[in-house]
Amino acid sequence: MHHEQEENLDAPLVFADEVVPLSGEEALPADTNGFWTILIVDDEEDVHKITRITLKGYSFEGRGVKLLSAYSGQDVKTILATEKEIALILLDVVMEEEDTGLTLVEYIRNDLKNHGVRIVLRTGQPGKAPEHTIISRYDINDYKTKPEFTDQKLFTCVTACLRAYRSLKNIERNREGLESIIKASSIVFKNPSFSKFGERVLDQLHVILKFPRDPGLDGAYFMGLTAGQMLLMAGTGSYANMEGTIIEKVLPKSVSKEYEQLVLTGGEVFQADQYFGVFKSKEGFISFLYLKSHVPLGSVEKYLLRIYANNITIGFDNIWLTREIINTQKEVILTLGEVVETRSQETANHVTRVAEICYILAKKYGLEEKIAELLRMGSPMHDVGKIGLPEAILHKPGKLTSEEFEIIKKHAQIGYEILRNSHRSIMKTAAVIALQHHERWDGKGYPQGLKGKDIHVFGRIVAIADVFDAMSHKRCYKDAWPLDKIMDTFKDEAGFSFDPELMDIFLKNINEFIEINRRFPE
Q1: Pairing of the two strands 118-123 and 142-145
Q2: Which residue of 12, 61, 87, 453 is most buried, as measured by CB atoms within 10 A?
């Protein structure tokens, strides 16, 4: 038997209706998507030949079979090390040892942890491996004696095993897909902007559907108001690098018609290789997801895509709600800041101008968008502590006495005490600003006498914005300063009152800050 095995190492492998030779040194094919792979394990060459002849031209669900041959336990281990998608093993029990087949079953199930491949034991010596004992002890899917394994029995057995393998793979694919959706959702919903949300939605689709990134999938994610223009927020494949383009200029007319219908009815539509989904918020905001696959969408892909799309809807609503909460917080903070400034007889637009100056200066200084935005939202509360000061001092038209100034200085600490116990990032930012926006670069400020970069960057930025706006506008105790006087004063105070680096950036971009004064006049 071993001599015959050596002579037949180059036996042909049957691929449906074509024969492809495979030498003992060739690598096994890696792409088995078009075939069901069956491994024949037997030390008798006739068994291999008969099995190939019987299964020649066989197909299941439109896919032919690829037959691999192994003549020993070591052959099996070698093949299993490279072939990861074997659907069925027709396994002889007695080969080089009386229990080689049984040992291989345990190796496959226990060592490789492969519980998907279907294993059919077939033996010419049933007395050495009684069926009842083998079925009870080993994780196999069928047991046949070689004499009873007729052409029809082989056809029936292979079909039943491939059907079971397909079902197991679908279950596994669903499980993996659902796990991917859970992971993808956590990534997609991680505090993104709407544009980042769309980008992540499309990016994670490749992970969930297991499609290659190129060419794999053409995806487009649009957002806008129901009654307004829909803009492309993110695109992949044919729609990459088209962000900001209106939907009519991106999608073909046939797709646009599907979108127009879905806007009226809502929901989603599947076609053989396409998906359309419309998601609406209660406030009239709408998003549209369009996908075109380069291969037909299978039932599993459609199932996973539908679940993912439903998660997108939830995430879209959550992001919208988060934006509403943030906008509400901003409005409350801005209103409170305006109330405080009105009480001290400063204009309501003072806090708006300071917020905009802070944002632009922070961005030009190199702070991240989310940090700069946090500063813009927290800065209107910089003088909230004035709410605890006497009106007589706040409204005094002349110069303050030293005692009165000491009282005024308390507003920084009072503002901090009002805000410091909040765990919200905006309020924590506002607390730092309230406490430190009167600190000086040279350490001669108040209330803590901090120096240089010991002062939080928020405090250093707001100090410049607050003083610039105060100098630029009339107050009860002074007139507005001309721009050249403001510029000269800032140049003189760089390195003393103000961070010299921030001041240099401010002066180089002075026209942008003057424009803010024009946008938000007294």
Answers
A1: parallel
A2: 87
According to CATH, the topology of domain 344-519 is Hypothetical protein af1432 (1.10.3210)
Q: What is the pTM of this model?
A: 0.49
pLDDT category of residue 30 using cuts at 50, 70 and 90: very low
**Residue 190 banded pLDDT, cuts 50, 70, 90:** low
Catalytic residue among 49, 386, 409, 478: 386
Judged against a pLDDT cut of 80, whether residue 315 lies above it is answered with no
**In this structure, which CATH number among 3.30.70.100, 3.40.50.720, 3.40.50.2300, 3.40.50.1370 belongs to the domain 2-170?**
3.40.50.2300
Q: 478 catalytic, yes or no?
A: no
Q: CA 287 to CA 4: how far, in whole Å?
A: 67
Task: Residues 189-321: name the CATH superfamily.
Answer: GAF domain (3.30.450.40)
Helices 500-508 and 510-519 cross at an angle (nearest 10°) of 70
Q: What's the rounded Cα separation, in Å, for the pair 332 and 311?
A: 31
Say what the pLDDT of residue 24 is.
Answer: 31
